[in-house]
Structures are given as C-alpha cells and as structure tokens.
What we know:
single chain; alpha+beta; 8 helices; 9 strands; 30% helix; 16% strand; globular; binds zinc ion
Amino acid sequence: MKFKYFESPELYVGCRETEVTCDICRQRKICFNGESFFGTQKLRSICPECLGSGKLNDLDSFTCDGDLKNLKGQLRELHPNLTDEEIHQIAGQKSFELEKTTPHLITWQDWSWPCADGDYCKFIGYGSKPLYKSLAKDITVEEFFKNSFYEPESYYDGLWTDAVPEQSIQHYEESNQYSTLFYVFKSLHSDSIITIWDCD
Ligand SMILES: [Zn+2]
C-alpha cells in the first residue's frame, strides 16, 4: 500500500476488519472506512487501490483539507518568476491530488494538512519520545521537537515533558489511548519534520 502523502496507512488508518464490498469497484476487499470522508457523496468503504488511483476525482468526496494558503506562499518564495495564475494552478493541482488520493487520518480536531518546501508533507506517524529521538540528529531532542512545530505559537514549555507519549505508538488503535496526540509529517523534498498536535 503506497501513498504519496501517507506512510503505512495499514498501521495508521482504521481499516474495516473483514473484507467488504468496495463502493467503487464492487470487489470484496479490505477497505478503508469512507464514512468520515468529507463532501456530499457518502461512501461506506473504498479499497486502497480505488483511493490511490484517483477514483474519488469525479465524486464530491475528499479525505482531508490541504493548507492551500501556506502552500501558495511557499511556492511563491521558491519560484519568484512564476505568475500568480501559475502558482494558483500548481497549488490547486497538488491540493486536488492530496485531498482525493490520501487515506483519511483520524484526528481529534479539524486542521489543514501541512506543507513544506512547496509541497504537501507525508504523514509518517504519531509523535512519541522514541520517534523524536530517532529523528533528532545534531540537536537535543527537545529542541528538535520544538523546531518541528507547524504553528510555533501552539508550542509551550513543558509540552514535551507533560504530553509527549513515552512509548511509541505503532498502531491506530493504540492512538485511542491518548487524549493528546502529536501528528508527525515529513517533507517530500528535504529532511524537515513537521509536528501538529491536538487533543480531545
Ligand atoms: Zn475498489
């Protein structure tokens, strides 16, 4: 199961436990639950192949909401020679691909999918002390954690000690045990790591 903006959805997305009929291709498969997708088109189940191959493109259904405003800002900085119309078009295409082909990440609150280096980021897992330790290279892990915040104003001193899970969260079901969650993303074009956090 390979998705551009989502690593290992078989771990981090709640799939239906038994094979069901995919609403699109009508085959019996292990499917994603489509009930929490956005849009007016109601889907019960969609298989990874149908989602990944863009079968939502013609339906009023999407799985997330890209941070279009920040993406345009990044693209403008990276490509100062492009016109507003070109920026608008590139950002629109990237948002369409993200929102139509990415498995749905269950979160406590609604927030926009982050971008970095002029593209949307890939979700790589739930934040935990072991995960951040494995990612931090030249700086202390707390500093690394702080620097990774997508919205720096949402960081506060003590968050690391008080709220970041001690154990790694290796499965979607394990994430249900935490009322505060850190969602970790990686840039597609650099080693940049982005953290978004929320709580119930
Ligand atoms: Zn299907």
